[in-house]
Task: structure prediction
Amino acid sequence: MLDLVLSVFFSSLLFVIFKLFSIYKVDTLYAIIINYVVAGTLGLSLYNETITIESIPNKPWFLGTIALGVLFILAFNIIAKTSQIVGVSVASVATKMSLVIPVIFGILMYNDKLNALKVTGILLALPAVYLASIKPREKEVVTSKEIWLLPILVFIGAGLIDTSLKFLQEKYVENSELPLFSATIFFVAAIVGIAFIALKAIKSPLKFNTRNIVGGIALGIPNYFSIYYLLRSLQNNTMNSASIFTINNVAIVLFSTLLGILLFKEKISSKNWGGIAFAVISILLVALF
Result:
């Protein structure tokens, strides 16, 4: 349970850091790339075994980390674009509601057992996430294909990341290799990001200034531990993956909301408080029963 608590804490911290990016004018794309380099380096430093670069491609999970690395950088950028075009609330809801994908995958592939109370808790998680995340819009949603496509891509991308992490951790990753596995994903994401900005550099200058580097370092440390402790919690024999993903996603919404109130004086509507109440009930049902 401690691993899950730490995963929630570090994941919630990411939202605080992204909020600070907008305040201190940090370029999100560059900070994200630096963050992956930092997270990968941190993972390697925590790996106790002797390792050579040549041995990594021979690992049974290596091809999976390539796919995940690409997903990581794509998902982060799509979430950013969704926030800018459609709105932060829509991006947040699409990301958190993606918990449905790994939950269903766990039931179908791993025969996760669910009683009536846990099913109720999982179902309550959906309105909890929606109500806790929704914010008033300053303008009407534009009815274009792009507006509808972006949230769908966020939903699918975030769900595929969680599902792939569970699958690889279950089938191929030894407990002792979790730091190396996580580090490889982050380095692949960094390489993809660097290739992307290298192409952009043909038309515009690079922006690796002190502000972006510090922002990337501040993001990379909690980002690594959010994934590392999520993977550790998935090894828990007392809770199935459906319960873990539900608690993780709902608790992040709850804790992030509280951090927003305490640190940024964000105003919470009656709908938000209703979502928080649903979140607490959902967590209790899934965790205790």
